[in-house]
Amino acid sequence: MIRKRVAQWAVMAVAVPVAAAGARRLSHSLESRRGSSRASRMLSRGADLLRPQKAKRRRFF
């Protein structure tokens, strides 16, 4: 029982970031070829839902 849960956790810990990176990469490649489209925006939005990028901190000094 515990092994099954650990295995599920391990798969999700690897699968979710890989899926988000794949969607983001596909989105960028579509945008570079054809420009911004609904499909590329949806892929990017889906990747952000799965794994949001950390916001870059703006420095004023």
Report the major sheet.
none
Shape: flat
Alpha plus pi helix count = 2
Structural class: mainly alpha
Give the helices and strands as they follow along the chain: HH
Please give the radius of gyration in angstroms: 16 Å
Strand content: under 5%
Would you report the number of β strands?
Answer: 0
Helix content: over 70%
Low-confidence stretches: none
Mean pLDDT: 85
Keywords: Signal
Region (Disordered): 29-48
Signal peptide: 1-20
What does this structure look like?
With 61 residues, this protein is mostly helical. The protein has helices at 2-34, 38-50. Keywords: Signal.
Task: Please summarize what this structure is.
The protein is an all-alpha fold. Helix content is 75%, strand content 0%. The protein has helices at 2-34, 38-50.
Which helices and strands occur, and which strands form pairs?
Layout: H1 2-34, H2 38-50
Short descriptors:
mainly alpha, 75% helix, 2 helices, signal
